[in-house]
């Protein structure tokens, strides 16, 4: 070729090559039906490894594409997703995409209760989700209150944010008020919030929901038996915000009035985005100050939390560092007095909506029974409630090992403390009852008893109780009286709990043509301690209680102080528990999702779990000194302090068991599937078994492992306007150990009756459905129908005394299981068009038996919640919502007769017939709350 032609030839070749290898792009905008952009929607193009996320305007771009045919897929939580074939020939492509709502999120990929990420439609589990948009109007009221939206989940949030109960499918018998999460696992990002439970120490103490939470995934029974540590009843997994390719955040300011116009204020915030070189961060949290839904003379809740995660993505996985700092004060409401067993109404001037009946605020120093020789004291102030602190840090990584092998590892360490300073019990104690005087710990407080207001020191009443030991009534001296001629049977409740915990979960996954095999290891180690001290308190029995300073002033004799200046008596003489324990949990598991055909899969999973409990508790004896702790014979309130005897009761037990679950899933078509599952799970005892059941006697036997068997059959389906999930279930709970709290009024001692082992069975159906007749209007309906039976059930009746000679065992086999409604549901409607949105929801709780004797029924109740919102501009929106719109006085719980030390099981049919006018203790649902919020997104 002549040299003069070579440059021209080279130019032609390069031009042709450029035309053949021309590069193109796909641009687009992703919006919702109202025209609002989806920020952070995932965009993927195949073949090739093209992916991105939408920016704050909902825009995306994929460039450097060759001509050809591609499959474009777009996904966003809470939508049905989008898939389209795109052909690129000679020009760039622009698409405008509107994602349709998937209200039940059947297309959403879930990670809870399964060993591999899978859409809800194709999973073989009864799983529900709450997405971010729905969460932001539910965080007020606490974790249990939020979970009312999950079908088939019974929640009792009447006490507030803590001291709550959550369970499903009748798996409830050991879920007592002070251990309400006994069978289920409360999780954050796939690991438990807390490894251990015992009285007044549950996972809800260390969990708060805020704007940092992205969604909630909930498993009811079923696969929880093989995917959670010692929690066969279900999993509630709160998943945090994930990485975003665009920087952004949100600030939410809320304020409102609750109950008797008690104010609440709160601020939530989060922000995150890329940091370069494939690093991403998120940080968020909240702070609040809440005067409470009921009337107290102190701030009911204050504090907050900060959470963060830092993630590095790479070609074959990711590594993430995360943490939480929680520092929070809250309290819990006790019961309210009621009368009329058939149609309960508030009694003694109290009100179902506003009465708290808690000790007022004061500050006292009570001798610490553990360190009396050092002169140590414990500060007690009921306004503190429970001070919860949690410092948690963790690391998680996912690594593709090649050849279809991958490994996932999640490790977390946490240091927790929960310091309770509150009141226990609020029973009516008549001034004719000798207990009203002998609670002081004094031997013979008989004669003229004087009650002074502990704050003003004004004399409120003076009386003569000289005839009480012979059954005669007291007599007032002068004009002063006490409300209802009674005091409140209550006590200071000081608990100091600490735990250091390590937990991790590792899974190894292998994919083949027909198998998805996962096997792994779960570990949990906890070092925990507790100290409990209780002292009686003299308190008026009225809606706004006052502390009473009480003296015995017999003529010609020294004045005897039956209480200290704050109204506390019998220092440290009611409770003394000092214990510690190490808990080790080890679990090995394996699961195979076997593809039998394109539409039929079988899941087979096994879990071997070993749990060790090793620890000790101190034996206690009264401190003995002439004149009591202070050596002063005229101060009778410090004569009964309990202290360690020097002897310890030790325990060292191990529990081993095998759980299994197997399921079939059949995809009828791309929009419909059915599944069936049988699970056999186990529940090892919690630490309360040792801490509560052995008072001053050796811990010479291990607890009983409860057995949970469940059979379920489910249907999931979806059309353009209608989505539904329904699951029929049968569940059986066996070897339930029950020990009731007892009180002996003769010697003022507290004890637990011998453990009774019982069985229960529940059958029912859960459903979840959504209907969208118009693009801006949606109706939702979920709930459960069930029948729960106490198939074998006995209750130990100690006849109000430690003496066992008059004890009896009552048999209630065949009765309806307590606190399990036959029906509960949520019915709602939501509107979202242009700049306006709103909702209206009806929560219905059916009638429940108040105890296993079936002698008292808690009436059905309804709660209505509503809200309306307005999008002011692209960044700012406002929302007004009202919880319990009609101020329902529904009753959530029942504590039995209005006597100190009584329990729900005390209200037998014979008792009610003999005491038709007696008062009893119920816990009403929380009253109306009205809240205004402003949200700013950036």
UniProtKB/TrEMBL annotation:
Residues 121-235 form the TonB-dependent receptor plug domain. One of its GO terms (molecular function) is siderophore uptake transmembrane transporter activity. It is found in: Cell outer membrane. It comes from the Bacteria. This is Outer membrane receptor protein involved in Fe transport. GO terms for cellular component: cell outer membrane. Residues 516-885 form the TonB-dependent receptor-like beta-barrel domain. It is a multi-pass membrane protein. InterPro entries: Beta-barrel_TonB, Beta-barrel_TonB_sf, CarboxyPept-like_regulatory, Plug_dom, Plug_dom_sf, TonB-dep_rcpt-like. Its main location: membrane. Belongs to the TonB-dependent receptor family. The keyword Repeat does not apply. It holds the Pfam family CarbopepD_reg_2. It comes from Maribacter polysiphoniae.
């Amino acid at each position: 070729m002549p040299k003069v032609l070579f440059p021209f030839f080279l130019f032609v070749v390069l031009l042709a090559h450029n035309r053949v290898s021309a590069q193109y792009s796909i641009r687009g905008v992703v919006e919702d039906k109202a025209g609002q952009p989806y920020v952070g929607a995932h965009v993927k193009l195949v073949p090739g490894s093209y992916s991105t996320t939408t920016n704050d305007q909902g825009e995306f771009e994929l460039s450097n594409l060759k001509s050809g045919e591609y499959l474009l897929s777009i996904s966003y939580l809470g939508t049905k997703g989008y898939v389209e074939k795109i052909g690129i020939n000679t020009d760039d492509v622009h698409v405008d995409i509107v994602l349709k709502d998937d209200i039940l999120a059947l297309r959403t990929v879930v990670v809870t209760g399964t060993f591999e990420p899978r859409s809800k439609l194709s999973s073989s589990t009864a799983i529900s989700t709450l997405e971010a948009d729905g969460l932001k109007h539910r965080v007020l009221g606490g974790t249990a209150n939020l979970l009312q939206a999950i079908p088939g989940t019974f929640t009792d949030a009447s006490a507030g944010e803590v001291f709550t109960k959550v369970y499903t499918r009748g798996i409830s018998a050991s879920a007592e008020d002070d251990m309400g999460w006994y069978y289920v696992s409360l999780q954050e990002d796939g690991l438990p919030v807390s490894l251990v439970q015992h009285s007044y120490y549950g996972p809800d103490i260390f969990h708060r929901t805020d704007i940092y939470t992205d969604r909630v995934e909930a498993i009811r029974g079923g696969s929880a038996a093989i995917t959670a540590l010692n929690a066969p009843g279900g999993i509630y997994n709160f998943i945090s915000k994930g990485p975003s390719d665009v920087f952004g955040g949100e600030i939410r300011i809320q304020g409102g009035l609750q109950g008797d116009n008690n104010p609440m204020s709160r601020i939530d915030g989060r922000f995150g985005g890329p940091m370069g070189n494939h690093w991403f961060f998120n940080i968020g949290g909240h702070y609040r100050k809440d005067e409470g839904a009921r009337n107290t003379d102190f701030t009911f809740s204050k504090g907050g939390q900060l959470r963060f995660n830092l993630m590095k993505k790479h070609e074959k996985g990711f590594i993430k560092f995360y943490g939480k700092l929680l520092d929070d004060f809250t309290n819990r409401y006790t019961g309210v007095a009621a009368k009329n067993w058939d149609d309960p109404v508030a009694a003694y001037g109290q009100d179902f909506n506003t009465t708290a009946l808690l000790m007022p605020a004061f500050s006292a120093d009570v001798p610490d029974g553990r360190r009396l020789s050092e002169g140590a004291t414990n500060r007690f102030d009921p306004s503190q409630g429970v001070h919860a602190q949690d410092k948690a840090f963790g690391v998680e990584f996912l690594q593709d090992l090649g050849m279809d092998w991958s490994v996932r590892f999640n490790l977390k360490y946490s240091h927790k403390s929960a310091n309770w300073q509150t009141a226990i019990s609020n029973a009516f104690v008549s001034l004719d009852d000798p207990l009203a005087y002998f609670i002081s710990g004094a031997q013979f407080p008989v004669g003229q008893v004087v009650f002074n207001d502990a704050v003003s020191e004004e004399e409120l009443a003076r009386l003569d109780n000289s005839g009480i030991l012979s059954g005669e009534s007291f007599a007032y001296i002068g004009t002063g009286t006490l409300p209802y001629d009674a005091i409140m049977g209550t006590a200071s409740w000081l608990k100091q709990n600490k735990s250091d915990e390590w937990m991790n979960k590792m899974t190894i996954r292998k994919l083949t043509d027909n198998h998805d095999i996962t096997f792994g290891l779960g570990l949990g180690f906890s070092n925990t301690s507790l100290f409990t001290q209780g002292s009686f308190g003299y308190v008026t029995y009225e809606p706004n209680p006052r502390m009473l300073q009480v003296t015995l002033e017999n003529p010609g004799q020294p004045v005897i102080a039956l209480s200290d200046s704050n109204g506390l008596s019998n220092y440290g003489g009611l409770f003394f528990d000092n214990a510690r324990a190490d808990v080790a949990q080890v679990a090995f598991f394996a699961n195979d999702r076997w593809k039998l055909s394109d539409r039929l899969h079988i899941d087979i999973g096994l879990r071997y779990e070993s749990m060790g409990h090793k620890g000790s508790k101190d034996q206690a004896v009264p401190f003995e000194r002439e004149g009591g702790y202070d050596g002063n014979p005229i101060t009778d309130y410090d004569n009964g302090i309990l202290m360690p005897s020097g002897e310890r009761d030790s325990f060292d037990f191990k529990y081993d068991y095998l759980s299994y679950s197997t399921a079939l899933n059949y995809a009828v078509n791309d929009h419909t599937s059915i599944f069936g599952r049988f699970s056999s799970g186990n529940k090892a005892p919690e630490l309360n078994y040792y801490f509560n059941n052995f008072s001053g006697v050796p811990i010479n036997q291990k607890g009983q492992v409860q057995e949970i068997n469940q059979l379920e059959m489910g249907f999931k389906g979806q059309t353009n306007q209608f989505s539904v999930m329904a699951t029929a279930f049968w569940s059986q709970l066996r070897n339930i150990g029950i020990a009731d709290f007892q009180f002996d009024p003769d010697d003022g001692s507290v004890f637990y009756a011998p453990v009774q082992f019982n069985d229960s069975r529940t059958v029912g159906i859960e459903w979840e459905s959504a209907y969208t007749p118009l693009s801006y209007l949606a109706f939702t309906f979920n709930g459960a129908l069930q029948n729960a039976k106490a198939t074998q059930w006995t209750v130990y009746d100690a006849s109000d005394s430690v003496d066992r000679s008059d004890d009896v065992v009552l048999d209630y086999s065949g009765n309806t299981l307590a606190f399990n409604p036959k029906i509960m549901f949520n019915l709602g409607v939501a509107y979202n068009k242009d700049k306006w949105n709103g909702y209206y929801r009806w929560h219905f709780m059916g009638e429940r038996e108040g105890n296993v004797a079936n002698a008292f029924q808690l009436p059905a109740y309804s709660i209505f919640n509503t809200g309306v919102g307005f999008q002011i501009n692209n960044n700012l929106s406002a929302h007004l919502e009202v919880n319990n719109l009609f101020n329902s006085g529904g009753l959530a719980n029942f504590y039995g007769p209005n006597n100190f030390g009584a329990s729900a099981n005390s209200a037998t049919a014979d008792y009610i017939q003999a005491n038709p006018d007696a008062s009893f203790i119920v816990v009403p649902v929380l009253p109306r709350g009205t809240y205004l919020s402003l949200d700013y997104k950036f």
